[in-house]
Amino acid sequence: MEAPRNPRNLRVALMAASVAAGMVGLSFASVPLYRLFCQVTGFGGTTQRAEAAPAQALGQTVSVRFDANTSGKLKWAFHPLQGSVTVKFGEQSMAYYEAVNRSEETLTGTAVFNVTPPQAGAYFNKIQCFCFTEQTLKPGERIEMPVSFFVDPDMLEDADAAGIEEITLSYTFYPVDKPKAVTEAKTAAPGSIAN
After folding, report:
1. DSSP track, 22-66
2. pLDDT reading at 106 higher than 60
3. How far is CA 23 from CA 16, 30, 33, in A?
4. Residue 147 — φ and ψ, nearest 5°?
5. What is the pTM of this model?
6. Are 73 and 117 in contact (CB under 8 A)?
7. What are the tens digits of pLDDT across the range 51-74?
8. In angstroms, rounded to a whole number, what is the distance separating the alpha carbons of residues 164 and 64?
9. Regarding the domain delimited by 45-181, which CATH topology (the fold level of the hierarchy) does it fall under?
10. What is d(CA 57, CA 150) in angstroms, rounded to the nearest whole number?
């Protein structure tokens, strides 16, 4: 004999299923939302992007130190071409990194970055950077990669960041299994050109 169905049990089951589905959806959305949060606030040393430096630079300066790392899975040598520079707040500056493919095959890498101390992330602005795109190097190829940046003068007004005398810009290169250009070319319709 079949037990009678209780509408309350059905309602509870539907609510539990809805909550579970919502949690799964939030778990997929959490990475892009966290990335957006970091980009907007500079949280965790995430740098900002800008079109240009302010019209006027201040006389006060800050030292910017450069750091480079490479994942053990990417057979590249990667290092900054200068150890540090001293820049005026609001002044556009340029630094260069060098990468060398030490393998016998063409490899593509992508750089992730951060700034320390983390309070400086909201004020460190990149105008142009090799980290905005994937980099592909042929066997033995050597490349110099620029990063154009400025430190926002508003940092001097922030009580948490005003005393910072040195900022470290750090990059780590990781391998890209399926480079975007190759992936896009393979998925393009025959006879069409991949953008």
Report:
1. HHHHHHHHHHHHHHHHHHHH-GGG--EE-SS--SS--S-EEEEEE
2. yes
3. 11, 10, 14
4. -135, 125
5. 0.64
6. no
7. 555 667 668 899 999 999 999 999
8. 11
9. Ctag/Cox11 (Pfam 04442) (2.60.370)
10. 10
